[in-house]
Amino acid sequence: MDTEEFRRYGTDMVNYIADYYDTLRSRLPTPDVQEGYLRKLIPEQAPTEAESYDDVKKDLEDVIMKGVLHWRSPHFHGYIGIAGSFPALIGDMLVGALSSNSFSWVSNPASTELEVCMMDWLGQMLNLPEEFLFSSGGKGGGVIQRTADDSVLVAIIAARSRSIRQHKDMTPGQTLDKLVAYTSEEAHSCIKKAAQLALVTIRNLPTDANFSLRGETLAAAIKEDKSKGLIPFFLGASVGTTSTIAIDNLCELGPICERENMWMHIDGAYAGSAAICPELRYVINGVEYSTSFCLNPHKWLHVNKSCSAMWVKNREFITEAFSVDVEYLKNHKLHGDTTMPDYRNWQIQLSRPFTSLKVWFVLRMFGVKGLQDRIRKDVTLAKEFETLVLGDDRFEIVAEVNLGVVCFKLKGDNGLNRELSKRINDDRRVYLTPSISKGVFFLRFVVTVHNIESSDVTYAWSVIQEQADLLLKSQVNAAS
Amino acid sequence: MDTEEFRRYGTDMVNYIADYYDTLRSRLPTPDVQEGYLRKLIPEQAPTEAESYDDVKKDLEDVIMKGVLHWRSPHFHGYIGIAGSFPALIGDMLVGALSSNSFSWVSNPASTELEVCMMDWLGQMLNLPEEFLFSSGGKGGGVIQRTADDSVLVAIIAARSRSIRQHKDMTPGQTLDKLVAYTSEEAHSCIKKAAQLALVTIRNLPTDANFSLRGETLAAAIKEDKSKGLIPFFLGASVGTTSTIAIDNLCELGPICERENMWMHIDGAYAGSAAICPELRYVINGVEYSTSFCLNPHKWLHVNKSCSAMWVKNREFITEAFSVDVEYLKNHKLHGDTTMPDYRNWQIQLSRPFTSLKVWFVLRMFGVKGLQDRIRKDVTLAKEFETLVLGDDRFEIVAEVNLGVVCFKLKGDNGLNRELSKRINDDRRVYLTPSISKGVFFLRFVVTVHNIESSDVTYAWSVIQEQADLLLKSQVNAAS
């Protein structure tokens, strides 16, 4: 494909995408396919000869879209949403076109430099303590990881390295057998998985009535483990758990971690972004105690995937664990005398895309106010949905609604709610994912898609009520 | 930005990208900026109010392009190149627009299903043994990781888990203290880093005169370590080392790994792709012995970043190490009775983009022949460059030229060649990165950009000769 063809087909794809968004409400969000559907629709082998753009495009609807779950649909209310926006898409096109690898300053100076600035911009928007910013001139700073999973894995590996260095009287394996990490039983699976991959024990601690991890619970666990000769070294705290968007009590947990010389990592993947609104800044109160803090702009700041923003107070903890020095990476004018971070030493992978470029497009084209407005709109819509739920006395709210997610259920047992969840998704007009906390199965209504309106909220509620009617009637019939 | 504006600005960006490619030869590949240049050019804080697309675009040249190292320039010959192509860019636009998260089948059926098919297509193109393909109906299969770094880290963690399970008489830490991984001293840093992050010892073994790791070297190391009571468990073999594109002797190494019950992972990030050409298939001869094998379509198969293809013979080794079961991920019609892989259990991260979609665009729009032609063209151009080097008796070739990279140097010491490397890059007309193997410093000429022509090769050589002339003259002058 030459550049003239790229102009034509690229423009065609831009219009296909615009049409897709314009007509998203006319598609059911949930596909109706069985496992193995796609293999029957395409050849068993790659084509020998080149096919045309039109050949591929012809199959888009019949092969691909047929089996897509439409995460950008205003009728998609599952999981935690993924942010996306047109400014991000346009920035991303340029990221792809430049196709650079920014593992060191010299390998693409603009990328490292813009990342440093964007991480400071974002940090200021969140009103993070100065010490997390490059502009403070201290040891802190930010880095774009790809996902919150990468961020917490980087944190726990760095914390593990620090602990091993602090216990020179033991072999690494002996230390490892004694290290204990903590998180709440409500925390995202990535924290548990990071511990599993780092080969350290993790304890999933119980939470209070608001699904929040409290200081006294952590303190008791630490005391118990220390009495067994174990070494508490890491807390994975949550700002916005996956299930109920609960917020751990950072102001209680932080001082305990400080006292115990433990690394406190905060996973604020979704909810952390709310802190750009002054009235919601409280969600990260206590961040000043953390060793590292992460949120995903690809979750609620309209940067599309993948973009996880991670800040640390002391970048040396990271670089000591993640540096590997080899000659072909040393082609750096100022090696050993650099003020710019060599980001390859802040992460798992050597290679890294120019992600800061799309962050720059988003922050400029929305402006801080624009991003605040979007978050406030989502919170308002969630509150609207909560009001609808509260207006139907067959239903109840499961967790306090503070941000863009509503956890609710039919009054009744788990079986009833599992059946409701199944019926709603089988119906296919709206997509919800259920969850379970403290043994209670419930449904979740998530607001994150950029073009969702109040009418989409009432539409979803009407579908849910309709399915609840049918379910409850069928139960009455079965009982009579 | 509404959809009408997206049509306008998206089209504008398509044309900006086309213009960029059309005029790439008129840009110097290497930027001329000092560390910290960018912070001086942009505000200290994110804008409060939204700015227009035109505002952002106005800054593209003055802020961003000013500091970009142009990896897509036909005068860029550094590192190992990154593939890119217009079909990949167009596919990527749709990936971004759909903005899905394909961690399980149900979270986007089309994504998982297409990935299964694309990994089989690619595997067939490489003539991989059947047992690596899903279509065999066995335990093998492929997955798209993001980078070769992820692939080798996944492999070493899975191997470590397997070893720990095999030594139930010891604690995980005790086993860990005894595990030994091996790789060659020429291997990519990601193998060494993976061992560091997995907290296992790694030995960097010496290579033969062709920079290739040989069986007897590995066998001797294993014997030595076993005599110390250590547990050899993993070999990170290279098909195409970073420095000289050397290929380890898989047919010697493989049987040793089999006999010793060691995991053999092959990192074929760049060179592995050559195997789609029958006459170059030899580069992966011995792949049948491997437990896992990886190559990056984003390096030489014209899929832009990030796309690392990884195959395993037994996917259970991976999923046993990488599964974390939590309720909110169980919303799967066929949970526990599924034929499709839940790819979240094959990798570090929970989240994953719909990368197979751009692979599908590329494989169809190039066709197997088109991709073979590109690889053959790059090999031919590298041979042309080698001929030019051999025609100038001040220079010598450092390593056998089989693929798209030429390692060469001035006859003379490391200091002379360091100076030549510095002068070429300071000159800025072409970009090369040097390397060092067996103590010898040399330059590398890499061919990977899709639109490079024979005239670009002769141009680069003329710049190199010109700088060599100046350098050698200045030395004569200094001596006289």
UniProtKB/TrEMBL annotation, chains A, B:
<dbReference type="InterPro" id="IPR015421">
    <property type="entry name" value="PyrdxlP-dep_Trfase_major"/>
</dbReference>
<dbReference type="InterPro" id="IPR010977">
    <property type="entry name" value="Aromatic_deC"/>
</dbReference>
<dbReference type="GO" id="GO:0005737">
    <property type="term" value="C:cytoplasm"/>
</dbReference>
<keyword id="KW-0456">Lyase</keyword>
<dbReference type="GO" id="GO:0019752">
    <property type="term" value="P:carboxylic acid metabolic process"/>
</dbReference>
<keyword id="KW-0127">Catecholamine biosynthesis</keyword>
<comment type="similarity">
    <text>Belongs to the group II decarboxylase family.</text>
</comment>
<dbReference type="GO" id="GO:0004058">
    <property type="term" value="F:aromatic-L-amino-acid decarboxylase activity"/>
</dbReference>
<feature type="modified residue" description="N6-(pyridoxal phosphate)lysine">
    <location>
        <position position="299"/>
    </location>
</feature>
<protein>
    <recommendedName>
        <fullName>Aromatic-L-amino-acid decarboxylase</fullName>
        <ecNumber>4.1.1.28</ecNumber>
    </recommendedName>
</protein>
<keyword id="KW-0663">Pyridoxal phosphate</keyword>
<dbReference type="GO" id="GO:0006520">
    <property type="term" value="P:amino acid metabolic process"/>
</dbReference>
<dbReference type="InterPro" id="IPR015424">
    <property type="entry name" value="PyrdxlP-dep_Trfase"/>
</dbReference>
<keyword id="KW-0210">Decarboxylase</keyword>
<dbReference type="InterPro" id="IPR015422">
    <property type="entry name" value="PyrdxlP-dep_Trfase_small"/>
</dbReference>
<dbReference type="GO" id="GO:0030170">
    <property type="term" value="F:pyridoxal phosphate binding"/>
</dbReference>
<dbReference type="GO" id="GO:0042423">
    <property type="term" value="P:catecholamine biosynthetic process"/>
</dbReference>
<dbReference type="InterPro" id="IPR002129">
    <property type="entry name" value="PyrdxlP-dep_de-COase"/>
</dbReference>
<dbReference type="Pfam" id="PF00282">
    <property type="entry name" value="Pyridoxal_deC"/>
</dbReference>
<comment type="subunit">
    <text>Homodimer.</text>
</comment>
<dbReference type="GO" id="GO:0042427">
    <property type="term" value="P:serotonin biosynthetic process"/>
</dbReference>
